[in-house]
Design a protein that fits this description.
By secondary structure, this protein is of the alpha/beta class. About 30% of the residues lie in helices and about 20% in strands. It has helices at about 10-25, 40-50, 80-90, 110-120, 155-165, 180-185, 200-210, 235; strands at about 1-5, 30-35, 60-65, 65-70, 100, 125-130, 150-155, 175-180, 190-195, 230-235, 245-250. The strands form 2 sheets. An 8-stranded parallel β-sheet has the order 5-3-2-6-9-10-1-11. A 3-stranded antiparallel β-sheet has the order 4-8-7, with no helix packed on it. Helix 1 crosses helix 2 (about 40-50). Bound molecules: 2-amino-2-deoxy-6-O-phosphono-alpha-D-glucopyranose (GLP). 2-amino-2-deoxy-6-O-phosphono-alpha-D-glucopyranose binds near residues 36 and 66.
Amino acid sequence: MKLIVTESYEQSAYLAARMMLDVVREKPDALLGLATGTTPVPVYRYMVEEVRQEKADFGKVRTINLDEYIGLDGEDPNSYLYFMRKHLLDACRIPTGRVMIPNGMADTQAELDRMNAFADANPIDVQLLSVGVNGHIGFNEPSDVFYDRYHAVKLTQKTRESNSRLFSSIEEVPTEAITMGTGGIMRARKIVFLAAGEEKLDAMKKILEDGEVTPKCQGTILKFHQDCTLFLDKAMAGQIRPAAYVEVRRA
Ligand code: GLP
């Protein structure tokens, strides 16, 4: 794992976007693994800016998302399909034919089969990633095991509470989701990882500091990835003592 210590979250997002765009420059039909949540929003803003200024060409780019809530329609503003359209897909004119996101309204098993068949045949060139307060990646909640492929999960109370800020009440937060497995995330050729906010500090300590790799904090497995770059601002990085094998650089 490589840790880049930045001046601010804004700089982290800018550098993460640059890394994503470099992959597209090298491989115009790259498969981008995408994430939702507030953390990646400024990353998408920078990517969209580059496309608008015609400094990046997304004419062949393909995308696959980590996860989707079960029970939310793509037109629901809290669905991850809606989020992706709003923050990236529409502005970059990426048609649905090149977008893979689980459909939260379809038969769950059929969706898992569809997503897994695609994921098995199409390696992810770069996966954008953030982390939940309990260390989850995608919606891989604390568990006794690491799941490999797309599967259905029951969301923990902690995750529902944390994500309820985007809904009008916690009752509206779905109780289940479809997520790429931690195994699938680990098969991405490259991972661009960001985290921000005091509430993520605990999880980031477990991920970066010397300690066990455990499904109780799914993000800890990123220690085993060969090409994972993490961007943290200096305020957060200053509170963490990365393990000796983490390569630390200032931006
Ligand atoms: C959701 C997503 C995760 C994301 C997390 C953190 O739970 N499934 O992929 O990392 O939110 O979101 P935020 O960036 O808003 O803190």
